[in-house]
Write a structure and sequence with these properties.
mainly beta, four-stranded antiparallel beta sheet, WD40/YVTN_repeat-like_dom_sf, single chain, ribonucleoprotein, globular, Methylamine Dehydrogenase, Chain H
Length: about 130
């Protein structure tokens, strides 16, 4: 599937297996329809992070358990959380002193977890 303009750095399959998140050094997170016999244009949504430069790439991505939000770690030391319907950034979570390499949503609680090159793990409460 084509769409990203630079190296892809993360993938995450939705809980029901119909959609794939990908994020790349082109500073976008994309949602792909991976169902059999989907339309030819499989990229169904594009989410933007900060203005792209060498230091501000999006790294890893994750779906919330209900699929209403997505998150990505970033080299700019923030965790970005988007609403999947409106594509709006809901949260830009600070705290790390290095690139955020992984993000995950708690399966039952409104908590997002992040891991960074600063050797720390953070837990953030969201709504």
């Amino acid at each position: 599937m084509r769409g990203h303009a630079d190296s892809v750095t993360g993938l995450s399959l939705s809980s029901e297996g119909s959609y794939l998140l990908s994020n790349a050094m082109d500073n976008t997170v994309r949602v792909w329809d991976v169902r059999p016999f989907a339309p030819k244009e499989r990229c169904v949504k594009v989410f933007q992070g900060n203005v792209h430069n060498f230091e501000k790439n999006l790294l890893r991505c994750s779906w919330s358990p209900d699929g209403s939000k997505i998150a990505a770690g970033s080299a700019d030391r923030f965790v970005y959380v988007w609403d999947t319907t409106s594509r709006r950034i809901l949260y830009k979570l600070p705290g790390h002193a290095g690139s955020i390499n992984e993000v995950a949503f708690h399966p039952d609680e409104p908590i997002i977890l992040s891991a960074s090159s600063d050797k720390r793990l953070y837990m953030g409460e969201i709504q």
